[in-house]
Amino acid sequence: MNKKFPEGFLWGGATAANQIEGGWNEGNKGLSIADVLPGGKERLKLLKEPGFTFEIDKEKYNYPNHEAIDFYHRYKEDIALFAEMGFKAFRMSIAWTRIFPNGTESEPNEEGLAFYDRVFDELHKYGIEPVVTISHYEMPLHLAKEYGGWRNRELVALFERYARAIFERYKEKVKYWMTFNEINGALHFPLMSMGFVPESEETKYQELFQAFHHQFVASSLAVKACREIIPDAKIGCMILAAPVYPYDCNPENVMHALEEERLLNFFCADVQVRGEYPPFIQRVFDERGVKLDIREGDLELIKEHTVDYIGLSYYMSVTQKKDKTDDERILGNVFDGVKNPFLKASDWGWEIDPTGLRIILNRLYDRYRVPLFIVENGLGAYDKVEEDGSIHDDYRIDYLRRHIEAAREAIADGVDLLGYLVWGCIDLVSASTGEFSKRYGLIYVDKHDDGSGTLERKKKKSFYWYQNVIATNGEQI
């Protein structure tokens, strides 16, 4: 049995523009959704609160995304550190608002385009392959406030214009693309990816699924454009992946877990990979009063322009019980599940389940038979800087080791896996809480929740460990 990582496996790290760049009002950049999201625990609450005002209130909140870790000015330093680790690939996103500041302009912003030219050139200088997410939780604020986000069909054409502009500009520099980050995550927090909070519980599902349809059409148009402009590129979808387990073998709980998993892991992927709405979704629509406005040609477009691969984030599994009480719910996980008695949790309450990664990779590959790409996996934790400046994050090394072992087992199972990218290879602003203290990086950044810090970069113990993992192509983990 071959338990090795294949030659050419894409080891590296992953980030998002709004969580690392800063420079929020430089280079003619427009305001994005991320620029009005405050830091701290309030963020999660605001993400689900109808009537979110989309206004900046610096007397009440701080906005860590505004400076983030200042990758906008320090990208050369950071990319040199990635190269020192041996990265084969670096996942990043393009900020839509750097290219079209309001999302509605007829011509792209040259200053924004030129910035990413410089970043891509720096990556290529070290032989690092860019893996680019077209939209990663940073919709132009104008489109959220004035258009109602992805509920509005007009965003389809605006997104296609944006996608075509970056394909044309970077066709010689980027060969791996993904359309929407964690597209299925909108089932739980639509504000960041769809640009709205549902108006009410009664209209919630109608709003969400109509917005999904618009994103599916837009994604298909982006795939079509990519194939026309960069025929040798690969373009994928990107989902938040989490296997769903029944709490026990009670058939009611098994069925409930199946229903939850199909909606979470398979609905968006079915449309983007298989090119059609899955049969099970009609019952979901019927039970939740959803009637989609599907225009002529939409379904044919979706069918014809399916993705080349599935990019996925993996952080946790979900355990489901049909009739759960409030006391049984686990608060830390992103999803509304119950505590799994066999798993421990991170500092932020996310249950740690390396075997779950192997399970979901097998489930996805069994269903779709297209290459998979782990484009996010990592541990958010409190890190301590010792008096000598060292950071001994053995807990992170243990987490990553166990997940890489699970990925290797999945490859031995027959899964076609393109690569493994550590989320937050450098400390960044947490998307869910807007905190710096929730650190993911293999590189420490001296920046703190109160806004203080020098932004100095330091190598953690995990930096050197991952450097060796890559150097040995996963032989030594």
Automatic annotation (TrEMBL):
Active site: 376 (nucleophile)
Top-level taxon of origin: Bacteria
GO MF annotations, alphabetized: hydrolase activity, acting on glycosyl bonds
Record-linked PROSITE patterns: GLYCOSYL_HYDROL_F1_1, GLYCOSYL_HYDROL_F1_2
EC number: 3.2.1.-
Stored Gene3D superfamilies: Glycosidases
Keyword Hydrolase recorded: yes
The protein, known as: Glycoside hydrolase family 1 protein
